[in-house]
Amino acid sequence: MKKTLIRKIILISIPVAVLIAAAIIYMVSKQPQNENFEYGKVEKVLEEADKVLENKYERFTLPDEIDVGPAKNAYIITTTEDVEEDIQEKTRKLSRKLYGVEPENIILDESHTKNCEAEVQVGDDIACFFYYVGGTFGCGFGYNTELADYYAEKAYLLGSDKTEGVSYKLKDGEMSVDGAVDMAYNYIKDNLMEFLPNNSDIKPVSVSVFKANETDYCYCVKLENVIEGIPVSSSGMAVPEEYTLFPQVVECWIYRGDRVEFFWNSYHRMIGEKEKVGKIITLESALENLDKELAPNINYKFLNISLKYCCRTEDNNSPEFEYRPTWCFVTASYNGTNAMLNPQVVVYVDAVSGEIYCFDGNTGRFVF
After folding, report:
1. SS3 letters across 104-134
2. How far is 201 from 76, CA to CA, in rounded Å?
3. Could you tell me whether strands 60-61 and 300-301 are parallel, antiparallel, or unpaired per DSSP bridges?
């Protein structure tokens, strides 16, 4: 009797399990695909991305390396502000974590009741904080505009520009570019990971060098959040007709060797609903389409190619944002007086829908 019952349960369970599995597969792969592109599973697409380096294209040239992966999954992430979050308590927690003391006062912004600022005495200095609903916050001993001129003396794109053996004189002595990167990375890993978006990691991407005064310099190390192997784009603020595309900025300012002068984490909304994407457009297919779509006779030079989450919204005043996996092609030189490492021209290919955008940072407009 028991065996018969067990057999019945098994016979019933198998088709139910099959139906559940089918439903899961359907949910994962329900995103519509663009017939002009080829798709593949995320992990395989990223593993095979560098194979395009063997190809030749008419309207652009490729970089020496492809900056992707590894990652097993990609998502479309819908985020929103947590209007119930206690900004004052988060500010207190931040102060306790960094300096071991409570802020002496917390000031709520009258025009934005969920934004606050605070100060705390640290030795002979005053550390300041600000924390805004949505995750934007900063902390340290001085805002970046007080540390340096607006224009950088030099900028380094990590992984592309030579930094070995390069150093600059800070307030209290020499520090190498690589040393500044390590200092910024360790500072965030040791102190601030719990304040960043859930389940994210960080990746240093660039270093800008600013003139602090006639004799000294300071560093600005820019980092990107990484969600399960895919970075969140730190560049590309633009406002086309259809939507707003926001950059996600994580910066550490270093003016002396014994501390981070200021940390700034901008526009990082709380991670919300994650819809798993079954397949994304292959890099080869994206490039083949760009070779048809980009303007002829210009010969674009792609300095960097990566898969990143680009954050966009249909309404700049809406609390809802959407992160989408996107192929990003940087096509501008980083040399020049304003070496802020904000790419002046970026071509975007939405890795799910196949939509193509080309942003010109010189004009603040989309080219097409």
Report:
1. CEEEECCCCCCCEEEEEEECCEEEEEEECCC
2. 18
3. parallel
Neighbours of 205 (CB within 10 A): 22
Q: Quickly tell me which residue has 């605070």 as its tokens.
A: 118
Q: Where in the chain is the domain with CATH 2.40.128?
A: 30-79+274-366
What CATH number belongs to 30-79+274-366? 2.40.128
Q: Which residues of the chain have pLDDT under 70?
A: 1-31, 80-85, 110-114, 133-134, 142-150, 198, 234-247, 267-272, 297, 313-319, 332-344, 360-368
DSSP state string for 68-109: ----S-EEEEEEE--TTS-HHHHHHHHHHHHHSS--SEEEE-
Q: Are strands 200-211 and 270-277 parallel, antiparallel or unpaired?
A: unpaired
Amino acid at residue number 194:
E
DSSP output for 342-354: --SEEEEEETTT-
Give the CA angle between residues 252, 258, 264 to the nearest 5°: 15
- What pLDDT, on the 0 to 100 scale, is given for residue 114? 67
